[in-house]
């Protein structure tokens, strides 16, 4: 099973059928909107193969990447405007996603996962929040 699409939901939204909604608030401790990572497994699109975070509302994703339209620090009084982007052009599909919240900036990824090194709460205060992924070898 592979991740085929990614989105961000506000706290009141449920995951669509065939999608997984992570239980961790992406703005935990930062005073912003309740936001949750959600992803589709085995949808009709090609598998997601890479993740990238861009800064700034008007920032454009790198060539071949799709930008998720929700600011990951939406509603926080002082956080950086961060946007998740993903690509489907690589050779190694992403199999699973996870969010790690911690008071420790060096919090490890779960076993078998790789941690994307940008703190999703950058500049907003609150917990350190990292996106992790498990990729096909």
Task: Give structural notes.
InterPro entries: MABP (IPR023341). Residues 1-137 form the MABP domain. The protein has 137 residues and is mostly beta strands. The chain has one domain (3-135): Vitelline Membrane Outer Layer Protein I, subunit A. The chain is 0% helix and 38% strand. It contains no helices and nine strands. The strands form three sheets. It has a three-stranded antiparallel sheet, with no helix packed on it. The chain has a three-stranded antiparallel sheet with strand order 4-6-5, with no helix packed on it. The protein is globular.
Largest sheet: 3 strands, antiparallel
Average pLDDT for all residues: 93
CATH topology: Vitelline Membrane Outer Layer Protein I, subunit A
Form type: globular
Portion of residues in helices? under 10%
Helix run count: 0
Q: Helices and strands in order, then pairings?
A:
Blueprint: E1 3-10, E2 19-21, E3 35-41, E4 50-55, E5 65-67, E6 82-87, E7 94-102, E8 114-115, E9 128-135
Antiparallel strand pairs: 1-3, 2-3, 4-6, 5-6, 7-9, 8-9
Kindly list the characteristics that best describe this protein.
137 residues; 0% helix; 3-stranded antiparallel beta sheet; single chain; Vitelline Membrane Outer Layer Protein I, subunit A; mainly beta
